[in-house]
Amino acid sequence: MKEVSIFSPATVANVSCAFDILGFAMENAGDEMVFRKTTQKGIRIVMKNFRELPAQPEQNVAGVVALAMIEKSQPDFGILIEIKKGILPGSGMGSSGASAGGAAFGVNRLLGEPFTQTELVQFAMLGEALASGVAHADNVAPNLFGGFTLVRSTSPLDIIPLHTPPSLSVSVLHPLIEVKTKNARNILKKSLLLKDAVLQWGNIAGLVSGLFMEDYGLIARSMHDGIVEPVRSMLIPLFDELKQAALEAGALGCSISGSGPSVFALSDNGAVAKNVTRALKKVYAGREVPYETFTSAIGQQGCRVLTKSNNG
Question: Which of 98, 119, 128, 159 is most buried (most C-beta within 10 Å)?
Answer without folding.
Answer: 98
